[in-house]
# Entry
Amino acid sequence: MACVTTRSRSLDCRNSVGGIKAVYIADFSDKGSPTLSATSGTITAWSDAAGDFYTYSVRPETATASFNGTFSLPNGTKFYTHTISFKREKLSGYETVEDEVLATGTFLIMYLDNNGKYMLLGYTNGMTLSGDENGTGTAMGDMNGTTYTFTSNEPYKAYEVDSSIVAALLA
# Structure
């Protein structure tokens, strides 16, 4: 099969910003049936997932996501490592219980970026907690809480989720 480029790409306007506004987490086993547009790479409908995503609010400039590619010419392979990191302040007993759930499960993670786009990580294999850093800080202004990092190796980049279907997905 020949792999050919399908279009030109010009420079876009410089009106994009970094950062994440919110993180949404659902159990991978509750994936349901997303409908993926082959032409736009966007999830345009999603059945059997209503109310499955729980909101993890994040403070500005405390969350980041990436989906970086690894390509092997000799092996003829490619994959993308999906990663999201976000902070939750205040250590507590409740957080300890929730951390145990996050440490043992596999999840779909959607986020809303500062450009108003919803992106889904872990579509094929699910995201797992690869690290959490808990601490009290030293100075009065330091963070007291946890930084979570979730990762997954996936066959494709993150998919955009059409904003018109997001409200139905949230718990």
